[in-house]
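Work Package 3 (structural annotation) set out to generate three-dimensional models for the target panel prioritized at the project kickoff. During this period the team completed the workflow that converts sequence records into discrete structure tokens, so that structures can be stored uniformly alongside our sequence database. As a representative example, we reproduce one entry of 432 residues exactly as it appears in the project archive.
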Amino acid sequence: MLDIRFIRTHAKEVQENAKHKGYDVSIDELMKADESKRQLQQLADDLREKRNTIAASMKGGKPSDEAMAEGKALKEQLADVEANLKEADLQFTTLLKKVPNMALADVPVGASEDENVVAKVVGDKPVFGFTPRNHSDIATQRDWIDKERASKVAGSRFAYIKGDLVKLQLAIVTFVINSLSDEAIIKQIAADAGLPVATRPFVPVLPPLMIRTELYDAMDRLEPRDDRYKLEGDDLWLQGSAEHVLGSMHADEIFDEKQLPLRYVGYATSFRREAGTYGKDMEGILRMHQFDKLEMESFTTGEDGLDEHLLFVAIQEYLLASLELPYQVIQKCTADIGKPNARGIDMEAWLPGQDKYRETHTADYMTDYQARRLKTRVRRENGDLELIHTNDATAFALGRAMIAIIENGQDEQGNVRIPVVLQPYLGGRKVL
């Protein structure tokens, strides 16, 4: 959440930002709740001081009836004030949590995703001498995807992934982890992007697939709850993406500055209800209740946060280019970047079977918005304590990566060309 001190001095800008992001919040109401809470806090502090003064005067002798009566009255008055303070604090915190993060100055103002901006287009779309098929047709023909039996076992929007498609997924995972944990590759990506960032590699992580309500809420990734899976009888949710359990893993911790940037690449099976999905999105494995993802997460100092975001975007471009996929870079507008985000970038790979670009990656920069509630801080070299900044970004959503490889690498018989960088992980094979 935002710092209330920032909101007090920038109330108009915060209200305007909330409007641009599409969040119905009243900063005036928040300011009134803030003032009420502060007044009650001051009253409670004053009463405690008076009570302590009376208690100190009673030591070493028999207290007078007047002193005892005053002490009793103060105790009762303080109890009432503390009850009111608790209620005021709850109201204040509820309102404060509704305020979205401030969008950075270069984020386009827009009312919907239709106003996102195409920043650049990279790669040539493949030209076929036949009508390209979608991944579902090819993968079903090759017995790589079985949704019919998965529906029998688990219901709609689940799939058995089989045969060469399993090998392809594991090849992508190994390629990405090997790449991101190699400092020389990170150094080259940063240099090519002209970014003055540390070249520390990513630490691979297999995280837990569940998260407690308190931390999910602190990450500000729990909503919309209708899209999440709750474990009945437990204070646990199935995570919807690996950054939910990577970004929260250092809650209530203090880093030494020399530990930063700390970068993770997490591999996790994720779960979402995907409510409202229809049409082409129901075909194949584009939108599933269960899907595997490789996700990047990092913790930096405040001054390094934006460059870290730009590094994540450069890494995403490197990965897409490595898989020889045509793509476009989308700068998301205010209404589409999300409540905790200060900036957001999407990557969309070209899918010949759908004759359109489809989202495969997103990169989110949260500044210190998540860290404030998580209480994740850094001790600077001069001893000062500061909130860290967080970034997360897709390395690959494995299903969508395989969709793009199948559709761009297909031939008329349904064979699929394997990207060169993945061939060593598939025994040197060039075709699936």
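The longest strand covers residues 290-300.
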